[in-house]
Amino acid sequence: MYNFLKGEMESEARIPERLPPIDDFAFGARESLSSTDDLLSDGFSFTDSPPSSICSDTNEYREPRRDALVAYPGRSSGTNQLGRTYSPGLPLSMSEREQIVGLYKSGWKICDISKRLCVTHSCVSKILNRFRTTGSVRPKDAKEGRTESPLVIAIRDYRARLGMSRQSEIREQLIADGICSRENAPSRSSINHILRTKLDMRKRKKSL
């Protein structure tokens, strides 16, 4: 009887099955989470991923072309809030503009496109608004949408029709045609500025 009880106590006092260390569980969890993130983000991170290219046939993402991220020497550069380096005054490349429109047509939201391509929300909105208005993704020309004033139109007409180039003659003709009065007529320097900037007339240097 004593031996029987002793055997029971020994069986209860057996060492339980050894469990794997916690680090193994943590490592496995990290692997499962990383694989899930890869599926959700299609293999890219929203914040750190560079711009990618869209295949028009399969809508699959490809690695970005190197020429899209070329730095322009001699230009000042900055970094936006998404970590992308840009040059002030330099528009996005045509490939990136077409990519933004392609993602929007595929159902992407503006905020998601902004995070995906590391382009600011306002820049994406401007490109999409221009595409809706004009049907083009080309950057806006600096002179686009500007209309010439009646003064510039009259001076251009005098130059082409009457061959006037002297500021005093042009000023008197503007007053005679009623385009402006003697009180608000442009000065000779103002007319000269219009001739140089609007009509591309440069002062010829006298040959020695």
Automatic annotation (TrEMBL):
Instruction: Report any Pfam family annotated for this entry.
Output: PAX
User: Could you tell me one molecular function GO term of this UniProt entry?
Assistant: RNA polymerase II cis-regulatory region sequence-specific DNA binding
Lineage, top-rank taxon, reads Eukaryota
Q: Does the keyword Nucleus apply?
A: yes
Key words, A-Z: Developmental protein, DNA-binding, Nucleus, Paired box, Transcription, Transcription regulation
In which broad location class does this protein mainly occur, judging by the first location in its UniProt entry?
A: nucleus
Subcellular location(s): the record lists: Nucleus
- Give all residue intervals belonging to the Paired domain: 75-198
Any one cellular-component term (Gene Ontology) = nucleus
Protein name (Swiss-Prot/TrEMBL): Paired domain-containing protein
Q: Sorted alphabetically, which InterPro entries does this protein's record hold?
A: Homeodomain-like_sf, Paired_dom, PAX_fam, WH-like_DNA-bd_sf
